[in-house]
Amino acid sequence: MKQRTKSKELWIFIILVVLSVLISARSNVFLRPDNLIDLLKNNAVLGIMALGMTLVIITGGIDLSVGAAVAVLTVLIGKFMVTFGGNLLLTFLVAVAGGVIIGIINGTLIARANIPAIVVTLGSMSIINGLMLYYTNGSWINDLPAWFIDFGKITLFKFHDAGGNVVGIPIQIIIFLIMALLTWALLKYTLMGRAVYAVGGNPVSAKRVGINIERTLIFVYAYMGFLAGVAAVTHTSIMRQVDPNAFLGFELQVVAAVVVGGASLAGGNGSIIGTVLGVLFMAVLNNGLILTHIPTFWQKIIVGLIIILAVSFDVIQRKRMEKSLPRVDVEY
Amino acid sequence: MLKTSKEMILLYVFVGLFLLMSAASPSKFLTLGNLQSMATQLPELGLIALGMMVVIITGGIDLSITFTAALSGIVGALVLSSGYSAGVEGTAVIFLIIKALLATLITALICGFVNGLLISYVGVSPILVTLGTMTLFEGMSVWLTKGGAISGFPGQYQWIGNGYLGFIPVPILIFIVFAVLTLILLERTAWGRSVYMFGCNPVATFFSGINTKKVVMLVYLYAAMMAAMAAIIMTSRYNSAKVDYGSSYLLQSVAIVVLGGTDIAGGYGKVVGTVVAAGIVQVLSSGLNLIGINRFMVDVTMGVLLIAVLLLNSFISKRKQGKGVKKEPKKIGIAV
Predict the structure, then answer these.
(1) CATH dotted code for B38-84+91-313
(2) Closest Cα of chain A to B93: distance in Å?
(3) CATH class, A2-321 region
């Protein structure tokens, strides 16, 4: 089991390296530090969301409301900052609190009322989106306070690249890394993390060993909401304005990144390292297609083909492995 | 014989809403014009929902259904606009339209075949396959249209989406035909039985000697065919084809299917339920629009309705479980 997850991640890593080599052979811009940093910065939001979605998918669920959630949270903090001023800590708190509330509502409906996650989050998606667009009428929020814009420009660990330019790591990448570490530690070293895997792998056994399934599920959706809050602040700090329509269809991109990273939608499977690699893969692919001047018309075709290949390959490999194992159960 | 089944509750909701809307604005809602326009709008989403329902009964989902519709509509539109010039008349136009309809259908069936192949023969989970093919079909649609719209169809083609037979719009007739067809296929044929069986228990279905792979393949082909029909109505109604026509129907169609009582885990679902649910959604969105409620609030209403109906269902089933003699053992604790 562990062997398999490991080999899965190794495969994604190898494919990522091969892809990077191919792109850098066609474009000398790709491996430049500023390009790589831009690439990471522009995908930090996707990455943060994918971390939360990994947990949701490990429990066997799915959260289609994340696009709407992060959009409404950007509007919330935008309005908050424009109206009250506030400071960075308060802004973070508002975003995270909003996200956690959305998550708890989703989680409660899923865990307590036993409604499938896909349906609950479909419903909450259209409620959140509708309310937000009604309230904002789709108009953008500008005039964010200067301190917030400055926050978005922070770079750390400055160094000189080959051309002598000063390059630093943007704060958004740091936020993503901290969240990734936090989520990784949560899954690996805490009881809750173990419970997340147990609930997804086999709810019956999980219940028998005394895991509170309801609490675990509500926690997972609340954590997804927490990360949506962090992602909302991160996104706004990059864009320096709020567009209520920026996240339409974003939820499926997040799911795609997690799935390419090796998590199985049947639950019980998935890892943070895999998801980070999945996000990197999507990021490198999109960046590479632009750098190698492949017309944008082709990009979706290629991304679609890669998702299909990745998931088919995984299934074929698993089938092969099952064949080599001694048969215990009657299966077809 | 009137049981309080899920479908009957829905029908009451539908009738109630219809009366409510009629009472709220009798001068606007209860006019022939409004009823006709509702009957013209409903079929696109309704057809996609019917296709989605068949897939969901097997426990799957088809996220690629709207882009199957977009892609097939675009291919049909290309055939139509490239073959049509001012000089073409009479039977030549009819042949051209038939050619375009066939092109639409065949393209959709190819899309469905790809889904079916990967899902039933390779064994990848439906949501993953269709997530990939959704992106793929969208990409191909963008590639074919270069992001623009395709237009320049013969005037006769518009009859499908905008025409009337008597005072009845043609799209609603097409919808009725396919709803009846779906009903017959699901409830009167061996294939239909095995679709429900597969949704309940794929392993048992396999061991009872049913070629489950073929059943599932046909399910995705059928969904694609419904997408093609929706695409034909759409391109004809808008007199053009574009990538994002109908892209909002994806999650809406899932919502309609679930609202219609179909179990998202598979095994249960009725054509009547889906049709009534599609009707509810149409009455709600047209009615609220006529009263002058913001269209975004219509989305909110639908979301609330979806969750409320499911909460009600889960509440009812919990009470039944609590009251009755233990007919069904509780799920957790028994399944070894």
Answers:
(1) 1.10.3470
(2) 32
(3) mainly alpha
